[in-house]
Amino acid sequence: MRRHRKVKIVATLGPASSDFATIRALFEAGADVFRLNMSHGTHEEQRARYDIIRRVEAESGRPIAVLADLQGPKLRVGTFADGPHDLADGQAFRFDLDPAPGDASRVQLPHPEIFAALEPGAELLVNDGKIRLRVEACGADFADCTVTAGGAISNRKGVNVPDVVLPLAALSDKDRDDLEFACAMGVDWLALSFVQRPEDVIEARELTKGRAAILSKIEKPAAVRAFSEILKVSDGIMVARGDLGVELPVHSVPPIQKRLVRACRSAAKPVIVATQMLESMIESPMPTRAEVSDVATAIYEGADAVMLSAESAAGAYPVEAVATMDNVARSVESDPTYRDIIESSRSAKRQTVADAIVAAAREIAETTDISCICAFTQSGTTASLTARERPRVPIVAMSSEQDTLRRLCLTWGTHCVQTPSLERFKQAVVNAAKAARDFGFADETNQIVVMAGVPFNVPGTTNILRIAPCDERLIYRTDPE
Questions:
Q1: What is the pLDDT of residues 21-57, one digit of tens each?
Q2: Which residue segments constitute the domains of the chain, with CATH numbers given?
Q3: Which of 84, 202, 370, 456 gives a 20 to 30 Å CA spacing to 474?
Q4: Which residues are the active-site residues?
């Protein structure tokens, strides 16, 4: 099975997509990566979903990536004595540490770290920003506020604090338990929620011990400000527009998205655009035109992947949502304007031999009759650098390392093929030609580009580029032992 598009699709699993038939249908409709949302469901439920994914993988013969998304520190108000209360614009309201049930004038905010960081003039947002309050006075155990945008406040509603970097641990106790569970289970990517600083990523990396790649979710203003440093220590990025659009003016999110996507591409690190992409398909079999345009915009920008959340996890039409994304991607990528945009935004930074080789591979493929680029990769770097070039021809990522191939399922344009461990370059060429033929990228009359590193099975040694025929008889005739 091969995809006829370059951008990848991430589908979240949940109550609407937990059985084998549905997960298999999601994969066949176009899902390349499955997301396990650790905010919902038990470890037993997540294990069952993971086992089904690996069963689908084994039956399809194609690597599938699994991404575990940690909940992160959730900030919530306490409870109210008499149900919801309406807060009016201009009224006074207090947050404090008192566990007594709240009323129309106050409620507990059981997070002393918030009070420690607040200053007069800071803004507090409740219930996804529907209620907004300005801090007038604050101390170690209280914040007196004025309501600037009123609404109904009720038990356990979420709180956002956009103006300050909170002295919160990057990982809660639940996150640490979930991280260890997910890594022991064998997930390929671990997404960190509410990242504020590079140290948050470094802490998670120490805990994973190389068992999973780290993907940082950018959903706070502090993360946007520290993005360059966060990107350096991350393996990938998710532009999580939900909370980002709550804590920042909504009109600022599109340019931030564009800037972050371009920076990730320059760094050759995969980037997912997520949140509310086809939200109406939770209840409707058809998306809105605005949603289709939103998905298309992310693809035109060069994102590695687009993601479905509740649409595939809890919606009435999970398979249709994946199929819609697949159709949008095919339509966009067949548009000549897409190539113009992608090529005009190509990074010119080339500092290593590997950079030069993958750039040369792309240029050769675009100026001669080449059917695909076959990149042998031990750690995934060669394939990622090739994807950064956004070549017009398919990328066949080849490795003996199953973990590497699974992680590359998130990277733009890569078709991942597992090979035996190789010792000689001729073996690489023969395997590349066979894979190109087997998966329909070429036939015996075509030529391919083959990239590898000698010595084999050593990360970071990409140093050979060969234009090779797909006819094995010609390979053996022209290649020396």
A1: 999 999 999 999 999 999 999 999 999 999 999 999 9
A2: 8-73+169-332 (3.20.20.60), 85-160 (2.40.33.10), 353-478 (3.40.1380.20)
A3: 456
A4: 35, 76, 217, 275
